[in-house]
Structure formats: structure tokens, C-alpha cells
Amino acid sequence: MDAYADPDAVARYAERPPRLVPGFADLQRMCTQLLAESAPVDARVLVLGAG
Hints:
Layout (H helix, E strand, L loop, with lengths): L6 H5 L4 H5 L3 H15 L13
């Protein structure tokens, strides 16, 4: 079965990275802070290879 066709797997998709990647929340905060410091307010960010 395709994992993306399973509604339960899709609903739980975002739960995995914080449990599997040490410092995940800190990494997210750091990225947010760095973007806030360097990107203009109306910047558009293209995230490649994200999940």
C-alpha cells in the first residue's frame, strides 16, 4: 500500500521528524531566525527536497 494513500499515515506524517532527528525543533527555530534576519519581509522561499 502506498503510504500517501493511507489517511492515518498522512495524518501522522509530521510527527516523525521531531522524534527521529535530534535537535529538530532547534533547527527549525534557527532557520526561522536566520531567514528573519536576512530575507526581506515580502521574500518568497522555495524549499527543495523537503519531505
